[in-house]
């Protein structure tokens, strides 16, 4: 008989891997086949906010500005984001989504909305409350154990 430890480990690993795999497959079915899941997460971090700067986006993703620069270069080349110089300080580079980037953002948002809608529709209010509490504790553990900047 499997122990609770084995069951939990299996459930967490399978769930995490399934979400990433399904998310990537959902992305590949749309008009955004040239995006990687990492690039999509950069688009998500830029969001619909009016032109956040590179440091802010890097902090959201838990990566260095140098690492983000490589991803942004690719996304600019693919037409999903654009660089905008700050009018008050030309040294500051802000990133904004293009129309294509906004469409990709909304496509990804729809995937997440569908996933959350399923959970809400399937679980009772009590089960949802327990799930939220449990996932909050797990998230807090990872933040405390592995530091800020993880998502």
TrEMBL record:
Domain HTH marR-type: 5-140
One protein family per Pfam: MarR
Keywords: DNA-binding, Transcription, Transcription regulation
InterPro entries the record matches: HTH_MarR-typ, WH-like_DNA-bd_sf, WH_DNA-bd_sf
Presence of keyword Transcription regulation: yes
Name of this chain's protein: MarR family transcriptional regulator
The species this protein was found in: Fusibacter paucivorans
